[in-house]
Hints:
- There is one protein chain.
- Helix 8 packs across helix 9, helix 13 runs parallel beside helix 16 and helix 20 packs across helix 21.
- By secondary structure, this protein is of the alpha/beta class.
- The chain has 4 domains: 154 residues, Rossmann fold; 80 residues; 165 residues, Rossmann fold (3-Layer(aba) Sandwich); 68 residues, Orthogonal Bundle (Helicase, Ruva Protein, domain 3).
- It has a 7-stranded mixed sheet with strand order 6-5-4-7-8-3-9, sandwiched between helices.
Amino acid sequence: MATNGKEIKDTPVMDSFKRELEQVIRAGYACAFIRTHEEERTLKTIKEVCDTLQQRMYVWDCQGAITLFDDATLSFKKEIDDPSKLFPSFMSDSFKEKTVLAVMDFQFFIQDQPHIIRSIKSTLSILRRDGKCVLFVGPRFPVPDELDKDISTIEFPLPDKYELKKVLEFVIESASSGSSTSVLKDITVEIKDKLVDCALGLTASEAEDLFSLAIAKNPKLEQDAIKTVLDGKCQILKRDGILEYISSVETMDSIGGLDTLKDWLVKRKQAFTDEARAFNLPNPKGVLLIGIPGCGKSLAAKAAASNWMVPLLRLDMGRVFTKFQGESESSARRVIQIAETMSPAVLWIDEIEKGFAGTKSSGELDSGVTARVVQTFLTWMQEKTKPVLIFATANAVNQLPPELLRKGRFDEIFFVDLPSKDERAEIIKIQLKKHKRSLDKIEDIVQASEGYTGAEIEQAIISALYECYDNGKRGLTNADVIKALKSFVPLAETMKEQIEALRDWGKGRARNASGKAEVVQVGKPTFLRGINVKKEEKKEDE
């Protein structure tokens, strides 16, 4: 690889890609698609493979000409304005045997174009015979059904730590050579390593831009440089729209209750370390939290990533699906690629049932797109070896596909119920501390909050604080919080039937996140009905 003319040695990830591409070309594949957002970096890598195989490499793009790629001694250019003539032209005597043609921008021409599809199919056998290979390069390529079995897909890897470290060194060297001062000489190894870790999941050009921006803001590359790269990375992920980088300050102490779940997470904190691998511990695959909304499932995901000191990536399944053919499947693979590149990491899929529902009717409603996307994730969850913990939450278990719940997808399935008496007390103390308040006795609040979720208790305290502020900024009292609790109907009352159904499902199917759970009464009546029961009359023969 080269960055702006600076040569960078291969990394293990790039070596693996080069071996795969070399085998495809040597095996006589007629066509293959290389999925990538890094066009320049990909072309240079293809050229290196061609040089190893002693084959010439040509490039065609929508500007309409086949050119010899990066050859200083031989100039070649053949105008081909009609995409349907590209493949027949590549078979002509102008191109010697065993050559590679990298085709750019072809996704704009192939869709719903039968004459172009036919021109490709008619030349496949000749390409295989002559040892010529056509490589479609780009972020997407809607392969038509007619060519689905003829075009294989190769994923071009994002840069790993080794490569990003070389990119950072190149940026530092470039800045040092253009500066009259020596401000870049005393950068610590620790800062460099953190900068590289922060850039994982980005392309080489994106990382180079952010490293350069950090130097432009502060040439000393101190702690604020890490924030610059992280902020830039957040903006890039937001622009991509599928994954969101979550900066969390939550800890295990932020969670009231859920002791069994917290213990499970704490014991796996060191799972991604070298010591764990030396002990032959497998990487944890994932955890699924099913239960009542507002009881701490999302908070647990944030606390887990913060406790493990790894990136937290939130996946919005709704943004995976797009209107373009083949783009949804491509988005799913890109999510997996970014998550594995940023590993060790926690991938948080909130309300997973909304993205994984509808697989049974997928063939009738969306030509099977949903089923293929879900299958991509299920296969990865089963087979993944990278240290990525899937942290999934769900509120409606009846919408989850059965194959998601089978062993091997998740290490553990937890059920999150309404908080017990002790857990409510803990939640109240956490919220009072969070808002810098204190109350001497909270037993009345604990009693009044029976049947309320943790989120509802938090909102009741916030509502009470607003009331105190409006009444002359006076101090908070127990009565204020109890009054706020009584001002709204809890979720357990409005969703009584759904919660009971969730509890029935959780018995024997999921591990209770709170350990020995206290069964909190759902929809507790405020008064008894006045029912007059007729007494049974005594029979005369008795």
